[in-house]
Amino acid sequence: MTKPTIKDVAKIANVSISTVSRVMNAPESVIESKRSKVLDAIEKLKYKPNALARGLIYKKTNTLAVVIPDIRNPYYADIIRGMEDASKKLGYNLIICNTDRDKKRLFSYLNNFYERQVDGILYTSDPVFPDYYNEIKRLRIPVMLVSTHSMEYELPSVKIDDEQAAFDAVKFLIDSGHRKIGMIGFDLSDSIAGQTRYHGFIRALRENDLDECKENIVYVNGWSYETPDAAAQMLAKCPDVTAIFTASDELAIGLLCYLDERGISVPDQISVIGFDNIRLSRITIPKLTTVSQPTYEIGYRSVEKLDAIIEEKEDPVLREYLPHEIVVRASTRRL
Known about the structure:
There is one protein chain. This protein has 335 residues and is an alpha/beta fold. The protein has three domains: 6-49, Orthogonal Bundle (434 Repressor (Amino-terminal Domain)), CATH 1.10.260.40; 63-160 and 296-323, 3-Layer(aba) Sandwich (Rossmann fold), CATH 3.40.50.2300; 162-292, Rossmann fold, CATH 3.40.50. The chain contains twelve helices and twelve strands.
């Protein structure tokens, strides 16, 4: 048995298709007699409107696509929760897509979004390369950058000031009396979390006359907890280090495990500070001092800003920065 269509509803109610559409989307605009006939017909046929068909009529499907590089990363949990809550409030559904930072996979998703006529894309964490930007422009889908930004292209974004946040983390260690400080960070090819957090680290050292620590940096690729090689390199490079700043909580947790396995006490021998304030940072041993990102608010605000673009409302802030803070727990101590 074929599914009933909007034409079937219109025929039974003896009204036009446009009248049926108005009853479903703006019922107050239809007189009571016709509205009752349409509602009766919908009930009789058990008609369920097709979202794609409605999108063809109204140029809106009430669907947003979320592009995430690695859904396993706990950093995204509260971001997605914020997106979900804001979407529910504003009447959108979310499609969540994991790219694994694979270009072909990303482009396949983008074309799928176009075919599904999504209203907008929430592009999370990764840089926007020229070919990505050109594809987005070609498809003419509104895009919001989440926990990332682009200084090259006029794309709206919501994030924290990563450079300042890293500076504040290192300055906290310096103010706690540390003078032998190291960093485990992301490769500098990562313009979002690599370069920015590196520059914050270097600026804090420079402004506090600790230039001798500038070489105490070990780089990693990815966000894994598995950081034994990086930790070993750090201790080999700076055996008298008293504090280590890591560019993510995952890296910090990996470092805590490495130090514990080798009987190095945190924070008595080495203080550790992370970045993100994921939920796991509250239950590590010892509990992790870290830079707290307002991840829920980032997700929520990104949907609000994207909705403003879709609805052609004015949003005066193109690149929006939300506040961060240092959450002090047991993994750091004063000297």
